[in-house]
Write a structure and sequence with these properties.
By secondary structure, the chain is of the alpha+beta class. β5 (75-77) and β6 (86-88) form a beta hairpin. The strands form two sheets. The chain has a four-stranded mixed sheet with strand order 2-1-4-3. Strands 5-6 form a two-stranded antiparallel sheet. It has helices at 26-34, 53-71, and strands at 6-7, 22-23, 38-44, 47-52, 75-77, 86-88.
């Protein structure tokens, strides 16, 4: 499970929005950056790229759901520090 990075560049023929990147308008991304909706953001070749807080939350929810389901199959989380690593019992 990986976070899907946002970018202002145009998608390539083989890329899908939401799978390879979240393709958004530059104005929207600049607005979201100004409103602190990104963990990190930067510019490369005149395009903006960044990891949104929402994208990280979506991955965390997927991991949580997977961990819950794995627990019902005889697996347990390693340690009690909230890490999501899972080991067989």
């Amino acid at each position: 499970m990986l976070c899907c990075v946002d970018t202002t560049r145009a998608p390539r023929d083989y890329e899908l929005d939401g799978r390879d990147y979240h393709f958004i308008a530059r104005e929207q991304m600049e607005h979201d950056i100004e409103n602190h909706m990104f963990i990190e953001a930067g510019q490369y070749c005149d395009n903006l790229y960044g990891t949104s807080i929402q994208s990280v939350k979506e991955v965390a929810q997927q991991v949580s759901a997977w961990s819950s389901a794995a627990g019902h199959r005889g697996l347990h989380a390693d340690g009690d520090d909230g890490n999501t690593s899972v080991l067989p019992r």
